[in-house]
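Researcher: Last one for today. Full complex below.
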Amino acid sequence: MAENSIYILGISAYYHDSAAALLKDGVILAAAQEERFSRQKHDSSFPAKALAYVLKEAGITLPQVSAVAFYEKPLLKFERLLETYHALAPQSCLSFMTSMPVWIKEKLFMRSMLEKSLKNFLPPGKSAILPPFCFPEHHLSHAASAFYPSPFDQAAILTVDGVGEWATTSIAHGQGNKITCLREIHFPHSLGLLYSAFTAYCGFKVNSGEYKLMGLAPYGHGKGAAVFERKIRDELIDIRADGSYVLNMRYFNYATGLRMYNLKAWQRLFSVPPRPPESAEIDPAYMDMALAIQKVTEDVVLRLSQSAAELSGSANLCLAGGVALNCVANGKILRSGRFRHIWIQPAAGDAGGALGAALACRHIAGEAPRIPESGDAMRGTYLGPDFSNEEIIITCRRAGAVYRLISDEDSLCRTAADLLNDGQVLGWFQGRMEYGPRALGGRSILGDARNPEMQKRLNLKIKMREGFRPFAPSVLEEDRDFYFELEGEYSPYMLLTAPVAAAVRQPYPEDYEQWNMWQRLYFPRSSIPAVTHVDYSARIQTVNRQINPRYWKLLQTFKELHGCSLIVNTSFNLRGEPIVCTPEDAYRCFMRTEMDYLIMGDCLLAKADQPPWREDENWRSQYVLD
Amino acid sequence: MQSLSDLWKFLRVRKKYWMLPLLVFLLVFGGLLIFTSGSAIAPFIYTIF
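Model: Here's the assembly. Have a good evening.
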């Protein structure tokens, strides 16, 4: 019987975080980032492996796809580059000469590049032709990824990121299947790039270390941060009442050069040199700087959200774009009370553009009607590959791994809960892989949040990353208000930060503000210290019984047996490595670290039982530090 | 050819005709520099310029 379903393929690629997503009659069938398959963090190449996966998941071939949507308009981006270089010549010459060869050779012919890559997916023979292309704008892709999967019939949409074609910030209104752009801020004025400039100045990697800067901010002291904040507001950014802003381009180099900031001007302004990347200690000045830019960012985002509410007249808000991954700012919007409900696209960065482009192609270009789903249409963002017990067992046998099969789910969850309660660190590999940067119980490393040593152990022995970085809790949705002040809202994608409830806090000593970073970090701030940041905040994942039944059952069992409804949940990877995708990736990561146990599907693996792991010691050099 | 046609349509829609000479220059000379590097015709290009 001939199938009449309409498949739309979304692609993001050639900048950072390439991905593929596939819709079937508007339902999101599959989506995944290329980095998970290629094992190259933030892989920007054509997402051939992710594309092969989404087609396999749907059981179709490329000729059955009705349209291919690319997440931005390359020619509009080229126009922005040329106009910027023209306007800022001769300072822009170096950047011009660096970027033009790539554009002339490849990016200007994006359609041809895409056709060439996609032709590899056509069956042999001359009859197969490629589907038609659709190129929605970058911010429209973000807006579509935020609005269409949301549970709202109509909503304000706020998208903020580094830059797409021209837009860096946009406010839109979504209603039914339409998205209307209401206001935009254009390059070079960009909140995302301002935040990235501080990320670079504080010694972290642009497009990857922004969340480290956010995690560093709570270590800043009020007084020091206030000085930096004043300077930022006086010199770097002019913020208007409606949230629009203008950057003082005298302080920035990204439009003309190969560096984010103007080194001399910043040193003169802040009287602090840039922090060398990967330096072991972090001077308190950088913590103050992180706090200052975080506060400025929150102020702009709050004002923008107020404008979005006024311009759209809506009580619902959808968020996307890289800045929407700033869960502290998102939490501030939630607590501002301006919106009844907030929904944030879990793949808010450029990877999510693949999904947004496909949705924009369906609903805007294709004019397909949209019926919002209760909850949302993301299926918990578990949109990646799944592996059966048989496949997991084959992997274990091939690796010579020792495993125990626990087919009864209750027994499996009881065993896992007991291990967690004993202070063991557990790899948790279950079901479909998450789409987006957060691990949400599909590819996670778990620990007991009550254990005061857990944060240190996870950071230094398991994840091999900076000791200051906080961890996030997964909590039973039903018990979220006992532990956190979430204002009754849900946070299924770990994109909202909220204060830990007063009932579980432990008061600070009086001289706490004077303590150094490590003293503050290791002070037991609450009965769940591993997930309570130094400012009593937590980045929360609320776990829903219907969306992820096995993960919910684990939490419920942990609560029943050991009296706690939450656990630490961090992504299943090492520093600089993409989150694991396959059982092979998971076993390799398990054996490379001091993780104690691994549960893959129904298989339990104990580290102590495993044969010695033999590997070239240089494996760490595979992963560029993030 | 499809890409060049797209480029022309883009210039028309956006009314950015001022970019045309710059684009022609970039495509011709940039293309020459990129595609002839290491090729057999490279010596002839050098003698022209």
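The interface with chain A takes residues 2-3, 6-7, 10, 14, 16, 19, 22, 26-27, 30-31, 33-34 of chain B (CB under 8 Å). The mean pLDDT of chain B is 77.
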